[in-house]
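User: I'm putting together a teaching handout on how sequence relates to shape, and I'd like one worked example. Could you take N-acetyltransferase from Muribaculum gordoncarteri, show the sequence you're using, and then write out its predicted structure as tokens right after it?

Assistant: Happy to. First the sequence, then the structure tokens directly below it.
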Amino acid sequence: MTPLLCDDKIILRAVEATDLDTILAWENDTTIWEVGSSMAPFSRKSIWDYIESYNPDIFAARQLRLIIERNDSRQAVGMIDLYDFDPMNRRAGVGLLIDRAYRHQGYGMRSLALLAGYAGKFIGMHQLWAVVSVDNSHSVDLFKKSGYRITGRMKSWLRSGKSYRDAFMMQLLIN
């Protein structure tokens, strides 16, 4: 049997207390706030509270965060999320963050593939979706290479300073 959450390079694992400083650094990196939904810094306590109350049951929490870890060094290289889980329609949004030091090395594509396999085979999900800024060509290309299709363009969807940017709705049909 092929493991659901790992391949020969990475493993997708649950959030651990030892991830506190790493998650704090990622969440407080203001250079990526515009591609996510952060509007203010997170405190160490707020991240600790999140980790302490972490619920891996996607049906109860309606979300799932997994740490992307290298198999060889056990180094966390990013995190991947399922959010806005809709159990009736079996779909969820996908959020992906790869640490700056590990970008363009295939970790994002591997993570998206493992997540899709897990979501389809184990959770029984029908589709995954992502909202990606039309300006973010690296992410658009990554999701396309991972099987996602652009299914719509949302006008003025993402705020950037005092202006707005369009975003693509990208979808992956699993089952």
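A couple of points you could highlight for students: The longest helix spans residues 107-123. The chain has five helices and seven strands.
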